[in-house]
Amino acid sequence: MEASKAIALVAHDNEKESLLSWALQNKAKLEKHSLYATGTTGKLLKSKCGLKVKSLQSGPLGGDLQIGAMIAEGKINFLVFFWDPLEAQPHDPDVKALLRICAVWNIPVACNESSADFMFSSPLIDQAYDHKIKSFKGHLDRKV
């Protein structure tokens, strides 16, 4: 993992203001990295925080799945996802799939302001990191 990370930013509706506030506090660090976001979150990060963000589809329209695919392709290596644990989401299976793919590919996930603060205060956020990925050779080579 390079010193400059590819970071995906996602927030459920009830968490968007928290993410925007956190992003403003961490703007200088975020600007050192390539940023991606789901639709509405990306628009807000651009307009309210002045961050350069590549916006994907809205989460319920496939944005979570787009980020998951980018993780599987090695194009995203950090996820900041302020999710709402108290609100049912119409795209909950997509959210679960996104979190699962992060675990599969050993991607750090900050799921709230505290975890994002701890991860972003780590010196590893701005350093190259020996990102270990489990070998899936056995799974790929299995007889079907």
Please give a structural write-up:
Residues 1-144 form the MGS-like domain. It catalyses: dihydroxyacetone phosphate = methylglyoxal + phosphate. The active site is at 64 (proton donor/acceptor). Belongs to the methylglyoxal synthase family. The structure is a single chain. The longest helix is centred in the last third of the chain and has 13 residues, at 92-104. This protein is 42% helix and 14% strand. The termini are far apart. It is of the alpha/beta class and 144 residues long. The protein has helices spanning 16-25, 27-30, 39-49, 63-72, 92-104, 113-120, 137-141; strands at 6-11, 34-37, 53-55, 78-82, 109-110. The radius of gyration is 15 Å and the shape is globular. The protein has one domain (6-141): 3-Layer(aba) Sandwich (Rossmann fold). Helix 1 (16-25) crosses helix 3 and helix 4 (63-72) packs parallel to helix 5. A five-stranded parallel sheet has the order 3-2-1-4-5, sandwiched between helices.
